[in-house]
Write a structure and sequence with these properties.
The complex is a heterodimer of chains A (184) and B (660).
Chain A lengths: L20 H31 E5 L1 H7 L7 E7 L5 E2 L4 E7 L4 E7 L11 E8 L5 E7 L9 H9 L23 E2 L3
Parallel strand pairs in A: 1-2, 5-7
Antiparallel strand pairs in A: 2-4, 2-6, 3-4, 4-5, 6-7, 7-8
Chain B lengths: L1 H29 L2 H30 L6 H6 L6 H6 L5 H22 L5 H25 L23 H30 L4 H32 L10 H26 L3 H24 L12 H25 L14 H33 L3 E3 L1 H24 L7 H7 L1 H17 L5 H24 L7 H10 L2 H26 L1 E7 L4 E4 L2 E12 L4 E11 L2 E5 L2 E5 L4 E5 L1 E5 L2 E11 L5 E9 L2 H19 L2 H4 L2 H13 L1
Antiparallel strand pairs in B: 2-11, 3-4, 4-5, 5-6, 5-7, 7-8, 9-10, 10-11
Helix pairs in contact in B: 1-2, 1-6, 2-5, 2-6, 5-6, 5-7, 6-7, 6-11, 7-8, 7-10, 8-9, 8-19, 9-10, 9-12, 10-11, 12-13, 13-16, 15-16, 16-18, 18-19
Classes of the chains: A alpha+beta (184), B alpha+beta (660).
């Protein structure tokens, strides 16, 4: 308990609380702050199991044996000529990292800048038959854009074409890009 | 010529900022009024120089001078004038210049508005602001100069990304940057206080208006951006928990904590050290945001050019400014005297709880935003932290603090009667519970979270109204006295009520929109229909339309609804300069709710069809109206006469009297 100056002289005998007013203040502050910080830390760690989404290229996903049903991001290049649009608004395409490929199914409108031969990141889960069902397709609204993970992965696999990247002297346009979203 | 003038003005501003800080610091050292005046003059001149540089860049954009690289990369002769102007801050370089303009502008504001600050404190504040100006203007001039000329100017520019060609997005950055950079004044003031080693009455009275101004502008900026994302990106979402959004949200949360803790410091002289810490933290988070957005280190839906070199420099600036300020804090903060004592159950105690929750929330947002970086650095495995994580961590923390909010506002300073506060709130609590249970009973179990959210929103609004009613003693004294009390209330009281109602309005809107949104997507041939909620939409025609710098396919969508028939014209616009197609959403408002129609791509077949997506977004407008009410509350508080008059000194004297 904090003591106001009026009754500061009165300290219960046998009190477990520290005697100095300053130390009591400090104890009080810790006693109030600790549970709130602990709650924040607990929630953060508890939620990370659901919240963290790993990024793989098709080859990495195969190597890691990503189980079907787990939410992951798959990124790479959209293979030329692979986009098939169904009459019901669904669309399928092939994502490649030049080593392995994944067939991706998506229901909904693709982002305005989705193009064949360009970088794409999709979020979703593998179906039992190995087809990747995307809930979200992220493509920058800028034709010069290459998702960082895709660029890194392509560099690693030796499939990097510098001409596909952003030149550092040409500043890119600021701003937003919309992830396309599937209808749930 | 104009670009050279701009480049020259920018370098001049750099020199003036250096002079500003050198003169001001030596003025404090020697207690020399002439030096101080010179430092202040340099601050005003630095602002004027950056303004000239900014005007030069704007002229280059308006006249489409493609020999300037920045103009060539971001503008086009076809663009409407508004977007030529907006393109000035549409690129990394130009927006850094806007940042510099705000930084020197706030420096000049301190000089002009701070006449009542003690001379030593003012000189130090102007000096620190000059150092910030020096660092950021140097960064702009040497690492991202917007005035670089091209050896071979193109005939036509590359134009601005069409989704940025939007009136709301055109005015979004000026508000956002004023908010971000507004915290720099608080930062400078806090550093000055730490150097002086004592909390002045002037500090307490000064920190709050600046925090209020910066926070209100930031609130407006974030809301504009969110509203733009809502109607421009075409899937009806308004918050992605994207790194760039989080970058603006962290200073907002810290700023909200700051303007509450500064009330305690102002009125009661307590929590001074904590207020100073938050003042340093708010602008540090602004700088962290600038680094995250511009370094391209995190994959984001809205980011600037990916340039690791620039990112490294910004990280250096952040480490230098925040690191030295926090070191100074660690060294000097023990000198700041602890002020008025208070019991745990008191207004001060409630504001401490508010601060702890807001600070913890800011920390969790930071953890979620930076976790992918740290994880990838440690393991090499890229990952992202998405909305589910933030919803699970942020929502419970905020729910807890919002449940406590109405009770906190009813506690008196120093030592409060908790029972009294609870008794006054029984009506509000009952109303909230009844609404929540009613909603839960009428809806299926899926609505449980939404029901809790609605109860919370009602609780916040009813609680804010109750607080005002208690203040004016509504129903307890004759009406005439109630009116007298109401007109006699300080503006700060109305500001608080407005802001807290705004929180409630936002919670209601967010929960209703999330819980009861209806969506439909279908490929329609001409004459086909699709049903969304209570509305039946039919695609009757698709025509060509020409805009100033785009050509569009325009759909005619006829709507039959409970309130009668109407027509919407969503478009798909093709911008030849960018070779980009952008959907233009059509929205019909029904009170606070939106009927939202997106015209998707054409599907070829025997009969052509078009993908039409439609959303019924109930109470969506309240998601944006709530924060605007919060910002309005902040601005109303800012206009409170007590913040400008020497009333703070009186309050301190009274507090000192009470303590003695």
């Amino acid at each position: 308990m904090l003591q106001t100056p009026g009754n500061a002289v009165y300290i219960e005998p046998m009190s477990l609380l520290p005697k100095s007013r300053k130390a009591r203040r400090r104890l009080m502050a810790v006693a109030v702050a600790a549970p709130i910080l602990a709650a924040g830390a607990f929630l953060s760690i508890y939620a990370i199991g659901d919240g963290a989404v790993f990024f793989y290229t098709p080859a990495q996903a195969k190597a890691k044996h990503v189980p079907s049903g787990r939410t992951v991001r798959i990124g790479g290049l959209v293979e030329r000529g692979s986009v098939v649009k169904g009459p019901d608004g669904s669309v399928s395409f092939v994502v490649t990292d030049k080593i392995a490929t994944d067939k991706v199914m998506f229901r909904g409108d693709l982002p305005d800048l989705f193009r064949e031969g360009q970088g794409v990141v999709t979020q979703g889960a593998y179906r039992g038959d190995g087809v990747f069902v995307a809930k979200e397709v992220l493509a920058k609204h800028d034709e010069r854009y290459m998702p960082k993970e895709v660029a890194d992965a392509l560099k690693k696999s030796g499939q990097w074409r510098p001409d596909a990247t952003v030149s550092s002297t040409a500043p890119m346009v600021a701003g937003g890009a919309g992830p396309g979203r599937a209808t749930r | 010529m104009i670009a050279e003038l701009g480049a020259f003005a920018l370098v001049l501003a750099l020199v003036l900022s250096a002079a500003q800080s050198a003169l001001s610091f030596s003025a404090r050292w020697k207690h020399d009024a002439a030096l101080r005046g010179a430092g202040e003059g340099a601050a005003l001149a630095a602002f004027a120089a950056v303004a000239i540089a900014f005007a030069s860049l704007m002229t280059a954009f308006v006249t489409s001078d493609f020999s300037v690289a920045n103009v060539a990369n971001n503008s086009h002769t076809d663009k409407p004038l508004l977007y030529k102007v907006a393109a000035v801050w549409g690129s990394h370089e130009g927006s850094m210049l806007l940042w510099d303009l705000a930084l020197t502008g706030f420096g000049a504001a301190v000089v002009l508005a701070g006449r009542r600050l003690p001379p030593g404190l003012k000189a130090l504040t102007v000096g620190v602001q000059g150092l910030l100006g020096l660092v950021f203007i140097a960064y702009t001039a040497f690492a991202s100069n917007p005035f670089v000329r091209l050896a071979h100017p193109p005939v036509e520019g590359a134009s601005l990304n069409p989704i940025l060609q939007d009136p709301f997005l055109a005015i979004h950055p000026p508000f956002l940057y004023s908010g971000y950079v507004g915290f720099s004044v608080v930062f400078s003031l806090c550093v000055a206080v730490l150097i002086e080693g004592r909390v002045d009455t002037a500090f307490a009275r000064w920190v709050r208006p600046w925090a209020l101004a910066a926070w209100s502008l930031l609130t407006i900026g974030i809301t504009l951006g969110s509203f733009w994302a809502y109607y421009e990106l075409g899937w009806g979402g308004w918050w992605f928990w994207d790194p760039v959004e989080n970058a603006s949200f962290m200073p907002w949360l810290v700023g909200a904590a700051l303007l509450h803790s500064s009330i305690v410091t102002e009125k009661r002289g307590a929590l001074a050290g904590w207020t100073v810490f938050l003042g340093l933290a708010a602008f540090s988070f602004s700088m962290l945001g600038a680094f995250l957005v511009r370094s391209g280190i995190l994959t984001s839906v809205h980011a600037f050019a990916v340039d690791p070199k620039r990112g490294a420099i910004l990280l250096g600036i952040l480490a230098l400014a925040a690191g030295s300020a926090l070191s100074l804090f660690a060294w000097r903060a023990p000198l700041l005297k602890a002020g008025g004592l208070f019991a745990p159950i008191s207004r001060e105690g409630a504001l401490v709880i508010n601060n702890l929750f807001l600070a913890t929330a800011a920390l969790t947002v930071m953890a979620g935003t930076l976790y992918p970086l740290i994880y990838q650095a440690a393991t090499g495995q890229p990952l992202s932290v998405g909305a589910p994580w933030f919803n699970l961590t942020f929502a419970p923390l905020m729910t807890a603090v919002l449940i406590l909010l109405p009770a906190g506002t009813l506690l008196s300073w120093k030592r409060a009667d908790a029972r009294g506060a609870v008794e006054r709130l029984w009506a509000a609590g009952l109303l909230a519970l009844a609404t929540g249970i009613g909603v839960f009973a009428l809806q299926n179990a899926k609505g449980a979270f939404a029901a809790i959210g609605i109860a919370l929103g009602v609780w916040l609004i009813a609680g804010a109204v109750t607080e005002l009613a208690v203040r004016i003693r509504l129903f307890r004294v004759p009406l005439k006295e109630v009116v007298n009390r109401l007109t006699g209330l300080p503006r700060g009281a109305f500001g608080m009520t407005l802001a807290h109602i705004g929180v409630g309005v936002f919670v209601l809107g967010a929960c209703v929109e999330t819980g009861w949104r209806v969506e439909a997507a279908q490929a329609l041939k001409l004459g086909d229909q699709v049903q969304v909620g209570a509305y039946s939409l039919s695609l009757t025609d698709v025509t060509q339309a020409e805009g100033p710098n785009y050509s569009a396919e325009r759909a005619t969508v006829r709507i039959k609804g409970p309130q009668g028939d109407s027509v919407l014209y969503p478009e798909r616009r093709f911008y030849p300069a960018n070779r980009q197609t952008v959907s233009q959403v059509a929205i019909e408002t029904h009170g606070p709710s939106d009927l939202y129609v997106v015209f998707g791509e054409r599907r070829e077949g025997t009969d052509p069809s078009w993908l039409i997506r439609a959303y019924w977004n109930p109470w969506a407008r309240m998601i944006f109206g709530g924060p605007l009410l919060m910002a309005l509350g902040g601005l109303v508080s800012l206009s409170d006469r007590r913040l400008r008059m020497a009333a703070g000194a009186k309050a301190r004297a009274a507090a000192a009297g009470a303590r003695a």
